[in-house]
Fold this sequence. Notes:
Structural class: alpha/beta
Protein name: UDP-glucose 4-epimerase
Shape: globular
Enzyme class: isomerase
Family: Belongs to the NAD(P)-dependent epimerase/dehydratase family.
GO molecular function: UDP-glucose 4-epimerase activity
Bound molecules: nicotinamide-adenine-dinucleotide, galactose-uridine-5'-diphosphate
Amino acid sequence: MFVLVTGGSGFIGSHTCVELLNQGYDVVVVDNLCNSSVEVFQRIECITGKSVFFHQVDLLNKESLARVFETYSIQAVIHFAGLKAVGESTQIPLNYYHNNLTGTLNLLDVMAQNKVFDLVFSSSATVYGENNPIPYVEHFPLGSTSPYGRTKVMIEQFLKDAYASDNRWNVSVLRYFNPVGAHPSGLIGEDPNGIPNNLMPFITQVAVGKREKLNVFGGDYPTPDGTGIRDYIHVVDLALGHIKALEKLASQTEKSIDAYNLGAGVGYSVLDVVKAFEKASDQKIPYDIMPRRAGDIAEFYANAEKALSELGWQVSLSLEDMCRDAWNWQSNNPDGYASKLK
Ligand SMILES: NC(=O)c1ccc[n+]([C@@H]2O[C@H](COP(=O)([O-])OP(=O)(O)OC[C@H]3O[C@@H](n4cnc5c(N)ncnc54)[C@H](O)[C@@H]3O)[C@@H](O)[C@H]2O)c1
Ligand SMILES: O=c1ccn([C@@H]2O[C@H](COP(=O)(O)OP(=O)(O)O[C@H]3O[C@H](CO)[C@H](O)[C@H](O)[C@H]3O)[C@@H](O)[C@H]2O)c(=O)[nH]1
């Protein structure tokens, strides 16, 4: 069975390709490489002994995308491709809307033309906005505070409207909490461009000596240690959630659109993560407590019961595993994919 993975050379996409290949799926990847490297495919091959069919395609180029559908008998799509930096999205919002929304509309159109209706979409916990109580439950009202987040809210709405108009659409919307860690092989992981925006890659770059110290954004939140609390999820657990979602789409006779939180259902503070990382890596992480980062909220985590009851999915890896694997990746690849394969 051919599965098309858009954005399959990126952080979460590459880990999902590994799990798809391990389960015997044939994998076709389209990615424009705006935030990833082709080097990842060699590494995926080292891990799985199998290769993906890669096409360097921008989703904004509908004709190129259509040719990929003509080449393979694609049965389902996992759609990761998109721009994802919250801060950057406030600087260049129209690029975010154009890339994420037009790219998705092109994909949906080409899928429908080829009668492919099974879709797993990468959404985010950011769609719960800032006014919902925690833990977040899937039926809560949606809204977001950044242009990036609004692209996710809007795409979720596109998908609902598409299903309402034509119930051949069969869609699983996965709302990720905070994906971190790396494949335990240390061959693939997160390789951000420039200064990392997110906590774990910043910590690993401090540990490997690329950054002097961590800035902890906010020490005065109403949380036990004053730092922000998030629901961190190991990227391999997250990747496995996509397989469960695909299996459900393929097995159900009644087509549907459903949203699922993919999180652990547990919150850890920034300082909890720092301590866990120091223990797992045996490295000291110097840090300064800084003012809060604009747009951050004190605390959120998932209610992950729906994914367990309907997809049969739950996390199996701990914060310790996340830190160990993130460190294994970073220490073996100090320059990410530009590092030589050991
Ligand atoms: N990493 C997170 O913290 C997080 C959290 C919630 C949701 N998500 C979502 O999950 C998805 C994957 O995230 P990731 O962390 O792997 O990001 P990533 O940047 O590593 O991967 C996204 C991939 O999409 C590609 N891409 C972007 N625009 C494209 C286009 N127009 N055409 C073709 N390819 C394009 C990029 O080159 C990249 O390889 C994204 O949609 C992101 O918004 C990520
Ligand atoms: O250098 C840093 C980076 C982060 N943090 C703190 O660490 C926590 C986690 O921050 P991240 O930037 O790693 O993650 P966010 O929760 O802000 O956001 C991430 O997860 C969200 C979904 O949960 C969205 O998908 C979003 O796109 C994605 O970046 C926050 O309290 C943040 O203030 C620091 O203290 N220092």
